[in-house]
Inverse folding.
């Protein structure tokens, strides 16, 4: 038996050696073919050196194939983006297509691993450091994105890593307090604007425990995910933050952070706030749509979800309550990244610019509830969505959603800890200590 | 659920009856006359090239899709590879990934330790439950005088033929807070799927141990406190345990039935004549005779339960509070959700070693128990 | 004789057999009821499901019976008909391939003698124990190298190679007497003719058992499609599509649709099961393992 195993192993080793060679050869060949594709090959823009005019001439990209990957959102949004991309194809002659992916992370990773990435793809600001660090993204070439100063600086910064700007934002979202105006009115509750008012409103609007809420016989005041991208906003409102400005040190172990966590945790412990999962919902928006809760803290993605799944549900949006120190919010944003080894960088950036310039960003956001990343079209967007103005207001005091490569591990410790606090099997001190230790491991190392 | 390993299949002769031999051989070969002869390795015919021609297609496929991937996994586990670039563009970093998983204090080791803990409790519950229930049901079904045997056998086996994802979704539906399980059970409503409380912690709570002893929360192993190690499966994990037990009983019941049917009736009769009660016959005659099959089922169960993935993916995706992450799930998560593909490969290699050890022990022990 | 033995099992009286039936019926309910409930709930409205989770009929107060769940099965993002087509194509082709390849190799291993056979068999035994999840990451690289990623071929071809299937066929062929081959040779049959005309027909029960187990295993396969077609949602199979249906964030969970989807996944395999039940049972019983 031992003898046989040994022979098998030797056989395998020999084979893998052969395979390894095959791999690198193939990569090189692929690269070589790519550079000779189409008449644009010569203009390969490397780094931010020469300024190239990126605005495509009519028909200049004739026949160039471009793939744009994103995660699948609502059918309406998928269709709208496809239409916009089709329009680009029509104007430039390129053959571009938007391909929404059901399992986006897996799909993208498979593509990057195998050296065959899509030309353009969504990058969440939180994922940017990992992707940039891995060298998967091309930096924005000089002049490739029109009028970059028009983009909100905080959003540009969200896609800047190690002083390199990687991609222009597609749009952005902030958090708001979404509530049912009828329910609040019936209960004589004014829209809360401070922590105290929020706690009082949640208490008044709660009519039963989570089990009753799940069964549809009672209502909870507030539903909110137990995770940093929600609770963090309350930390900001109390002058606290996870890390310092330049992500070099953990700042979670402060009285301000502890107080913010205690406040939010208290809402759950008293039964006035519920985790969506505790009431059989996949997310807070679903719990709200089903009428299980009166208020939720969600972002610009909520209105279309309501329209699609719960068209009869009445709702209104307010700014998040102000904390003891001031207002605080997150800016969630996604950009169009161009793959470092995109087959046709020039055409790829042309598509990105088409989708994110003044015209493109307004065309994209006007029909939807996400906000344009350009200041010059903000007014037009608000006039199209007056009821969503509180989300825009949130932009003034929002902080970016992103850290350094590998920080996902730290947030998972924090989120797991927060769940423990809400479930009553962890203390806030433990969570802060565990998260700080994990964070120091990532930031320090 | 996929029972990933074949193991050795020396069970009592498969209950397959040979059909009538076609005419072409029936005259020439005295097939029916002699007992079936089984010879291994006897040169039968043709040149040796023929054997390779017959086995080469399958061999090549197995090498390409199973053997080589293992070697690749082993190779990348020694590299600094996030999964976001081609692995050929990465650096060799020695045992760093293994070090992060086993020795280096940090989130990676803690997560790995939690996955081991969760899977250990999962195995601890699933294997005895599925083996015992499958055995008991098989024994009852083996009663010669029972009516409707086919119906019962079919209904027990039915969940095992279905897609693991489909049955998991049905279970999630049943175990929701507002779902059928809570409606049927006469207790207070239980939050099953989003409940991170450990069963052992809950049990300790019932006997009055509310607060853990200080040393148990101040000390730990691999970044997990002793108090957390002894938590038991979380309620959410327990729901998955019930699901998997429910799904796999049918398969194991069939294996037990095949084993029971090979026990000659005379053995049982003899015990009865000797004045043994039904229980005595069961315990002192049937169970010892069934030992090899029981052993087979337990080891197959051990091997399969250390690979649980589908059910985790489709219920809670590792949550709540990481109480349902398992090594197999962690491989997926670290690689595809956390850009730590090389670390995931290292977990895969460690998991492979564990399963290989189980398989090896199984084969050794089956040989030594002298199974048929 | 029959009358005499019929009394013997229940020395303790009829109550013991009664107890046996109670246990059996209880478990039959435990195993079957979830499917019945899923079937009924597919035709209920969502509020009805929430309010009456165990009720086996639709409550008129909540809208009574409805086809909403079924309608949800074919939308832009939920494409059950397409996934079912993919599952069918993959299952049929991969099963045929697997059975064919395994028969060839199993026959060679059982009845032929050639250098390296022992090593080959040892390799198959080792590979038997490899869990699929271990291969998750490197399989990408292989599929990519072969240009099979995100294609039907990538979904199908790797599933054709299964160490267990080869092992199983070897076991079946080993039971056939060598004299048959010798006799065929005397009759002047070539090796190929002996294989196809003599041995394969004799191994038919084994072939059917393997086919059934393969159909079941491939139809239900989740891990392989998860990595083989990550960027081709149109190639998703039923288990993959279903799993993502629930996992997709930001969408409500229409349980009537999800349950209808699980039933559509279950029904074809259930039909195969009922038709070929005998072989299913034989296959599992004979091998102790299902594919």
């Amino acid at each position: 038996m031992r003898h046989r195993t040994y022979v098998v192993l030797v056989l395998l080793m020999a084979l893998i050696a052969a395979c390894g060679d095959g791999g690198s050869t193939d990569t090189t060949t692929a690269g070589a073919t790519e550079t000779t594709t189409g008449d644009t090959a010569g203009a390969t823009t490397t780094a931010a050196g020469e300024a190239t005019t990126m605005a495509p001439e009519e028909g200049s990209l004739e026949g160039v194939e471009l793939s744009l990957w994103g995660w699948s959102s609502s059918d309406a949004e998928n269709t709208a983006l496809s239409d916009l991309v089709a329009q680009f194809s029509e104007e430039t002659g390129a053959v571009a297509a938007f391909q929404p992916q059901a399992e986006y992370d897996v799909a993208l990773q498979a593509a990057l691993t195998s050296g065959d990435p899509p030309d353009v793809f969504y990058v969440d600001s939180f994922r940017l450091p990992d992707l940039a660090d891995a060298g998967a993204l091309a930096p924005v070439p000089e002049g490739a994105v029109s009028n970059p100063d028009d983009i909100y600086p905080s959003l540009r910064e969200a896609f800047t890593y190690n002083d390199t700007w990687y991609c222009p934002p597609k749009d952005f979202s902030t958090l708001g307090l979404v509530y049912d105006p009828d329910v609040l009115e019936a209960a004589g509750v004014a829209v809360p604007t401070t922590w105290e008012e929020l706690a009082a409103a949640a208490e008044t609007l709660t009519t039963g425990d989570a089990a009753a809420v799940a069964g549809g016989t009672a209502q909870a005041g507030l539903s909110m995910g137990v995770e940093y991208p929600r609770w963090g906003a309350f930390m900001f409102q109390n002058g606290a933050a996870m890390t310092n400005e330049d992500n070099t040190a953990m700042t979670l172990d402060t009285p301000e952070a502890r107080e913010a966590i205690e406040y939010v945790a208290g809402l759950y412990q008293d039964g006035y706030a519920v985790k969506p999962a505790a009431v059989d919902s996949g997310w807070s928006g679903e719990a709200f749509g089903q009428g299980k809760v009166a208020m939720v803290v969600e972002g610009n993605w909520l209105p279309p979800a309501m329209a699609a799944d719960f068209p009869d549900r009445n709702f209104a949006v307010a700014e998040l309550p102000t904390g003891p120190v001031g207002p605080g919010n997150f800016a969630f944003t996604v950009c169009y990244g161009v793959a470092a080894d995109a087959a046709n960088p020039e055409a790829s950036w042309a598509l990105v610019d088409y989708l994110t310039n003044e015209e493109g960003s307004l065309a994209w956001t006007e029909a939807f509830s996400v906000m344009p990343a350009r200041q010059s079209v903000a007014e037009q967007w608000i006039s199209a969505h007056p009821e969503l103005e509180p989300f825009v207001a949130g932009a003034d005091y929002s902080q970016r959603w992103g850290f350094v490569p590998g920080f996902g591990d730290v947030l998972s410790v924090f989120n797991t800890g927060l769940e423990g606090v809400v479930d009553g099997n962890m203390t806030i001190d433990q969570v802060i200590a565990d998260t700080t230790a994990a964070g120091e491991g990532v930031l320090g190392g | 659920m996929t029972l990933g390993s074949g193991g050795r299949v020396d069970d009592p002769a498969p209950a397959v009856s040979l059909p009538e031999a076609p005419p072409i051989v029936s005259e020439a070969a005295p097939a029916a006359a002699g007992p079936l002869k089984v010879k291994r390795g006897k040169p039968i015919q043709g040149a040796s090239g023929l054997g390779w021609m017959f086995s080469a297609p399958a061999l090549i496929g197995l090498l390409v899709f199973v053997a080589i991937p293992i070697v690749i996994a082993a190779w990348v586990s020694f590299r600094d590879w996030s999964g976001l670039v081609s692995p050929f563009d990465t650096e060799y970093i020695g045992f760093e990934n293994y070090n992060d998983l086993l020795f280096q204090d940090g989130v990676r080791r803690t997560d790995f330790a939690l996955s081991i803990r969760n899977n250990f409790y999962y195995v601890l519950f699933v294997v005895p439950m599925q083996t015992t229930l499958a055995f008991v049901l098989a024994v009852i079904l083996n009663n010669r005088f029972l009516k409707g045997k086919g119906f019962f056998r079919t209904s027990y086996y039915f969940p095992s033929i279905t897609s693991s994802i489909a049955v998991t979704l049905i279970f999630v539906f049943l175990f929701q807070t507002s779902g059928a399980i809570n409606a049927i059970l006469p207790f207070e409503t239980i939050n099953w799927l989003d409940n991170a409380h450990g069963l052992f912690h809950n049990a300790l709570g019932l006997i009055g141990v509310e607060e853990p002893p200080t040393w148990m929360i101040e000390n730990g192993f691999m970044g997990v406190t002793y108090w957390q190690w002894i938590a038991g499966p979380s309620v959410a994990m327990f729901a998955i345990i019930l699901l998997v037990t429910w799904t796999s009983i049918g398969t194991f019941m069939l294996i037990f039935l095949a084993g029971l049917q090979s026990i000659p009736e005379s053995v049982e009769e003899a015990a009865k004549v000797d004045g043994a009660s039904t229980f005595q016959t069961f315990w002192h005659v049937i169970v010892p005779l069934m030992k090899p099959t029981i052993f087979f089922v337990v080891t197959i169960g051990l091997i399969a339960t250390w690979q649980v993935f589908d059910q985790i993916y489709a219920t809670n995706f590792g949550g709540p509070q990481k109480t349902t992450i398992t090594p197999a799930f962690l491989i997926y998560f670290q690689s595809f959700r956390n850009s730590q593909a090389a670390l995931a490969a290292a977990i895969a290699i460690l998991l492979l070693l564990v399963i290989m050890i189980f398989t090896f022990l199984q084969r050794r022990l089956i040989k030594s128990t002298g199974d048929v | 004789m029959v009358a005499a033995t019929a009394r013997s099992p229940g020395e303790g009286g009829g109550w013991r057999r009664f107890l046996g039936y109670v246990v059996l019926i209880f478990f039959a309910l435990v195993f079957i009821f979830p499917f019945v409930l899923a079937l009924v709930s597919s035709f209920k409205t969502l509020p009805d499901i929430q309010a009456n989770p165990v009720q086996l009929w639709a409550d008129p107060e909540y809208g009574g019976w409805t086809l909403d769940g079924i309608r949800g099965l074919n939308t832009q993002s939920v494409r059950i008909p397409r996934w079912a087509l993919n599952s069918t194509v993959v299952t049929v082709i991969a099963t045929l391939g697997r059975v064919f390849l395994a028969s060839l190799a199993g026959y060679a291993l059982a009845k032929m003698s050639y250098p390296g056979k022992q090593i080959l068999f040892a390799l198959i035994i080792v590979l038997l124990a490899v869990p699929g999840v271990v291969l998750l990451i490197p399989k990408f690289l292989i599929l990519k190298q072969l240009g099979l990623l995100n294609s039907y071929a990538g979904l199908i071809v790797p599933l054709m190679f299964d160490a267990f299937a080869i092992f199983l066929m070897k076991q079946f062929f080993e039971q056939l007497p060598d004299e048959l081959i010798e006799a065929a040779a005397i009759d002047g049959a070539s090796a190929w003719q002996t294989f196809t005309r003599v041995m394969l027909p004799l191994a038919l029960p084994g072939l059917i058992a393997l086919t059934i187990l393969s159909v079941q295993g491939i139809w239900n396969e989740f891990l392989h499609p998860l990595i083989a077609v990550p960027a081709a949602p149109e190639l998703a199979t039923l288990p993959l599509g279903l799993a993502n249906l629930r996992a997709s964030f930001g969408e409500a969970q229409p349980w009537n649709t999800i349950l209808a989807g699980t039933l559509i996944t279950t029904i074809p395999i259930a039909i195969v099961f009922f038709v070929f039940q005998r072989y299913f049972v034989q296959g599992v019983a004979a091998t102790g393992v299902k594919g």
Summary: Residues 1-43 of chain B have pLDDT under 50 and may be disordered. Residues 259 and 290 of chain B are 7 Å apart (CA to CA).
